[in-house]
Design goal:
With 395 residues, the protein is of the alpha+beta class. It has 15 helices and eight strands. The strands form three sheets. Strands 5-6-8-7 form a four-stranded antiparallel β-sheet. It has a two-stranded antiparallel sheet with strand order 1-2. A two-stranded antiparallel ribbon has the order 3-4. A hairpin with a 2-residue loop joins β7 and β8. It binds zinc ion.
């Protein structure tokens, strides 16, 4: 009987036995041993990267692990050797998830980007036979399970290698320290290394990563360009639509202007605020009660006249140039026109609750036999003011 942590230790041992046969790992270990040696002998005290960790072994170990991506030193050898690759991929204590992730370049090109799915036996065989690559079931692209951002790599290989080397580095530190005390530093065993081989290995693995990234980046740039093109196309389409609709729209506005003009109004707005939109707030706040009055009243009947805002009182003064396409670019005529219609509609709907409503241009009249309204029409008109206010906010 073995418990989970024992099983993991066994898997770590299997992983270590496999990678220890690779030339790349020998290069990695030699470099790390040298760094540890330098670190313990104080030779790195001028190196900012390590300086701050001189008194904290645990932080130093973390820093060591993160200073070099271990896997880069062994991936080429691992993905070429099917049997070793199969053994590593099938380690029992690994999380069996894989993902299409490319956090590095930011923009996603897969509908399932970042989500994990089951790394089934079928996918594992594909990976073994295809040098670590499988076909993404969501976008059909080839993905590399050892990509630095793939969940399979992140949740397994990266963590296991970190565990493995944290332990190893710790032992090496003990060894170097013991050797230092015995004044026999040469006891430290360093792997013999072929500098040319090392250079080639590093060039191959980084080169491959760069190419992969560059390919992805290129694809994303193409897609971004396509999206931009579509956006521009739809912008042109919208502009054409706007241009086509412009005459009819301005005709409608002209009809509203025929109810009456407020050519002096823009001055008030400019003093009140930067935004013309605030005009109606100003109106609602200061002048609403002057806009309605009871014209007839008995105990059972009341007639109210309500003077609605002229178009220009709400949206500002228009001039002849507004009516020549495209008009004033700061004026979203379509939105304003729609807004004005909605405000009128809200008024109709509200007043209709209390009786018969008639509208002549911007003048509304309400004939009501609603006793509550007759008793307190002011309160109800204030409700209308609030309803208009709310509607205006949504324009
Ligand atoms: Zn995908």
């Amino acid at each position: 009987m073995t418990n989970p942590s024992e099983r993991k230790l066994r898997d770590l041992e299997i992983l270590e036995n496999i990678i220890s046969t690779f030339n790349g790992i020998k290069i990695y270990e030699k470099e790390m041993k040298e760094t540890i040696f330098e670190y313990l002998n104080g030779n790195l005290s001028a190196d900012n990267f390590y300086k701050s960790y001189l008194n904290n072994r645990n932080d130093f170990l973390d820093r060591m692990i993160h200073s070099q991506e271990i896997f880069l030193f062994i991936e080429d050898e691992l993905i070429k050797d099917k049997e070793k690759l199969r053994t590593v991929i099938n380690l029992k204590t690994f999380e069996n998830f894989v993902s299409h992730s490319d956090v590095a370049s930011g923009i996603g090109d897969c509908s399932s980007e970042g989500d994990s799915w089951d790394f089934t036996d079928e996918y594992k065989e594909e990976a073994v036979n295809n040098r670590g690559c499988i076909t993404c079931p969501f976008c059909n692209e080839e993905i590399y399970i050892f990509d630095l951002y793939n969940s399979f790599y992140e949740d397994n290989i990266s963590l296991y290698l970190t565990d493995l080397y944290k332990k190893k580095f710790s032992i090496w530190i003990d060894l170097v320290e013991a050797a230092s005390i015995n004044k026999s530093q040469n006891q430290l065993e360093l792997f013999p290394i072929d500098e040319r081989q090392k250079r080639d290995l590093l060039i191959i693995s980084t080169d491959k990563k760069y190419k992969l990234r560059a390919k992805k980046a290129e694809k994303k740039a193409e897609e971004a360009a396509l999206i931009q093109e579509e956006k521009e196309l739809s912008k042109i389409k919208n502009e054409e639509k706007y241009k086509n609709e412009f005459p009819a729209m301005m005709q409608e506005i002209a009809t509203y202007l025929s109810w009456g003009r407020r050519n002096d109004y823009i001055g008030d707005w400019e003093e009140e605020s930067d935004g013309l939109q605030l005009a109606i707030y100003w109106n609602l706040d200061w002048d609403f009660d002057k806009r309605y009055k009871a014209t007839h009243k008995t105990k059972t009947f009341k007639e109210i006249a309500f003077r609605f805002w002229l178009y220009e009182e709400v949206f500002g003064r228009l001039t002849d140039t507004d009516f020549i396409y495209p008009g004033n670019k700061d004026n979203p005529y379509d939105i304003f026109l729609e807004g004005y219609k909605k405000l009128i509609k809200v008024t109709h709907k509200f007043l209709s609750k209390f009786g018969d409503v008639k509208q002549e241009k911007n003048y509304f009249s309400l004939k009501s036999m609603d006793l509550d309204f007759i008793k307190g029409h002011r309160d109800y008109m204030h409700e209308l003011k609030q309803a208009l206010y709310d509607e205006f906010e949504s324009i």
